[in-house]
Design a protein that fits this description.
Number of strands: 0
CATH class: Mainly Alpha
Number of domains: 1
CATH topology: ADP-ribosylglycohydrolase fold
Order of helices and strands: HHHHHHHHHHHHHHH
Structural class: mainly alpha
Helix content: 55-70%
Length: 256
């Protein structure tokens, strides 16, 4: 899941300053982890402890209230009896990569992705975005070819993955919905030749950069196996001890 976290941190600088190029510095002094990282860690924590996704998300979200949550999700974090609010936002997809690393069969990954999404994002598109992302991570882990991954995700979720980045990039705009984020992030991975290229592709679309790169990054890590040390070193330095400890425990248990 470090690939998702690194994507979030690298993309964080460009969320409010969208760019349309793959040529940019990976890290700047403003680079930081956002809600994407906090909620990814929360998902991993729930899997490690066998606990409830909502409880874990509230535990970590309340500790990092300034991480950049959407207004409705922020309310959900702090409302004691908050219910799912029918969101189709990409928050369900950006936090789900640990599910794709923790389970080894398709049916379980799809079921767990739905469980992780529907505590807040129970709209069918919110659930679909989480399932598509988690399944892409699993298939990448299992060394499926990119052609097979493209075909399987397209067939199951009716996402148009036949497009290419050169056609998407000129008119693509900031969008926080699953249906306008998850397919584009998967395409960014599919057109890559390395982990770093997947991240650069995602950011270059000029949209919700940290989330696009977070989603693409989780899949790319699963596919390419390792991340360059020049990426992992600054990323790990930016994580506070509690988040770092969850990452280390998850990595040791699930071999990520």
């Amino acid at each position: 899941m470090l690939g998702a976290i690194a994507g979030d941190i690298i993309g964080s600088v460009y969320e409010g300053n969208q760019i349309k190029t793959t040529e940019f510095p990976l890290f700047q002094k403003e680079s930081r982890f956002t809600d994407d990282t906090v909620m990814t860690i929360a998902t991993a924590h729930a899997l490690l402890e066998g606990g409830d996704y909502a409880t874990s998300m509230r535990q970590f979200g309340r500790k990092y209230p300034g991480a950049g949550y959407g207004a409705l999700f922020f309310h959900w974090l702090f409302e004691e009896d908050a219910r799912p609010y029918n969101s189709r936002g990409n928050g369900s997809a950006m936090r789900v990569s640990p599910v794709g690393f923790a389970f080894d069969d398709i049916d379980t990954v799809l079921a767990e992705a739905q469980r992780s999404a529907e505590v807040s994002h129970n709209h069918p598109e919110g659930i679909k975005g989480a399932q598509a992302t988690a399944l892409a991570v699993l298939l990448a882990r299992k060394s499926w070819s990119k052609k097979r991954i493209r075909t399987e995700i397209s067939r199951r979720f009716d996402y148009d993955l036949s497009r290419n980045l050169a056609d998407i990039r000129p008119t693509y705009q900031f969008n926080e919905s699953c249906q306008k984020t998850v397919p584009e992030a998967i395409i960014a991975f599919l057109e890559s030749g390395s982990y770093e290229e997947a991240i650069r592709n995602a950011v270059s679309l000029g949209g919700d950069s940290d989330t696009l790169a977070c989603i693409a990054g989780g899949i790319a890590q699963a596919y390419y196996r390792t991340l360059p040390v020049e990426i992992t070193t600054p990323v790990l330095k930016l994580l506070p001890e509690d988040l770092l400890n969850v990452y280390k425990r998850f990595s040791q248990r699930y071999g990520t």
